[in-house]
Design a protein that fits this description.
Elements (H helix, E strand, L loop, with lengths): L5 H21 L4 H12 L10 H22 L2 H6 L1 H26 L3 H12 L3 H10 L6 H27 L6 H23 L6 H6 L3 H21 L4 H13 L6 H5 L1 H17 L3 H6 L1 H25 L4 H10 L6 H11 L5 H38 L1
Helix pairs in contact: 1-2, 2-14, 2-19, 3-12, 3-14, 5-6, 5-8, 5-16, 6-18, 7-8, 8-17, 8-18, 9-12, 11-12, 16-17, 16-19, 17-19, 18-19
């Protein structure tokens, strides 16, 4: 008998994650797809190796926070400022068109307005983690299309707050004045921090000099900065990941602060893997196998519709044909904050348990199949271009 039974959890988890990760590299797919499959296999709806979904989701949330922190380190506030009009216009258009398309389906099946709005919100959001992992694997982090869609993804995260308020109204909860006040204060603070970061070329901190030469202290300083900002925005009823993103942008402007991201790479890898595993753990395999045909048709419909919507928006916003199609395919999947919206819909009675489980499985599958969809779109677009040239 093992003196410490938790060791077996680490051994099995690392073995399964490594196996599926290597399989994805052989198939030339992002490694995170393997983590999703590992979570589905080991989760409560698979082999049941892990049964506490709440703990898995909490660890996954830390992964999202760290991921947004690193994205903030790599992006320039001036770049964000230069593309904010595109981001705002593109995000609002995407949400409106998504709700509009869902309303057509809702009229056919006599859905209430609250359900139409909920589903429209859910499919309009994309996952920053999926996009960044894919483009990093291909070395496209600094490309024009990546920078533009990253701005849209950040804007989507910011629009989650008004979405929650609207769903609260549909659920009969009303608007809590304290919550609304906190969100308004948070919005003002975010704008103030962004303006300060944009107007400050290099940020100098005395503590940086004190921790130089002490890697362990450097790690704790970076984590303190990341999670302090996340705590503040969380308290203000905004996204904790948004706070981490702001902290990352501040770190990116710290003089001689390159060591921060270098020392946190391993921690980020672990927790981002936990996030994708938590997505896989939400997939009820029994429910999926029992309803596989309508679920897969719905997944394919969402990927196709989102690609068409986003391609049109990106084209209107000035990108080339290829950039528009490629960027649209990258954002075709449904994002991590959609899980939150779905849970709000269930708790407020907008959707019932069956519809909620349907939604969760569909979101998780779009994240899993997103990279395959991008590769398929790339292949079809290349073939189309070749045919045009031959003609």
């Amino acid at each position: 008998m093992l003196s410490d039974p938790f060791v077996i959890y680490f051994v099995v988890s690392a073995l399964v994650a490594l196996t599926f990760g290597l399989l994805m590299t052989v198939l030339k797919l992002p490694v995170f797809s393997g983590y999703v499959l590992a979570g589905a296999l080991l989760g409560p709806f698979g082999l049941g190796f892990f049964t506490d979904l709440e703990i898995i989701n909490q660890l996954g949330s830390i992964g999202v926070i760290l991921l947004l922190f690193f994205i903030g380190v790599e992006i320039s506030p001036n770049q964000l400022l230069a593309t904010w009009r595109i981001a705002l216009a593109g995000t609002i258009l995407q949400v409106l068109l998504s709700v509009g398309i869902v309303s057509l389906v809702g009229v056919i099946f006599d859905w209430p307005l609250s359900r139409i709005v909920l589903i429209g919100f859910v499919i309009s959001l994309s996952c920053t983690a999926v996009v960044m992992d894919y483009v990093k694997q291909r070395g496209e982090e600094q490309s024009l299309v990546t920078q533009k869609i990253l701005s849209i993804l950040i804007m989507q995260d910011m629009l989650v707050v008004p979405m929650l308020v609207i769903l609260g109204l549909f659920g009969g909860e009303g608007v809590d004045r304290t919550t609304l006040t906190r969100q308004l204060v948070g919005g003002v603070l975010i704008v103030a921090v962004l303006i300060w970061e944009i107007r400050t070329e290099k940020i100098s901190m005395k503590i940086i000099d004190n921790v130089k030469g002490h890697p362990e202290m450097q790690v704790f300083f970076a984590l303190l900065l990341c999670f302090t900002f996340a705590l503040i925005t969380g308290y203000l009823q905004l996204s904790t990941a948004l706070g981490a993103f702001l902290a990352g942008m501040m770190v990116g402007r710290i003089q001689d602060g390159e060591w921060i991201s270098d020392n946190l790479v391993s921690i980020r890898v672990i927790f981002v893997a936990l996030f994708f595993a938590s997505v896989g753990a939400l997939i009820d395999l029994g429910f999926l196998f029992a309803n596989w045909l309508p679920i897969m048709l719905l997944v394919l419909s969402i990927l196709l519709v989102n690609t068409i919507i986003n391609a049109g928006i990106l084209k209107i916003l000035g990108l080339s044909n290829w950039e528009s199609v490629y960027g649209a395919a990258l954002m075709a999947h449904v994002g991590e904050f959609s899980f939150v919206l779905a849970a709000i819909g269930l708790n407020s009675g907008i959707v019932q348990s069956f519809s909620y489980q349907y939604t969760i499985v569909v979101i998780a599958l779009t994240i899993l199949l997103g990279p395959i969809w991008v590769n398929l779109v790339r292949f079809c677009f290349d073939r189309f271009q070749d045919q045009e040239i031959s003609l």
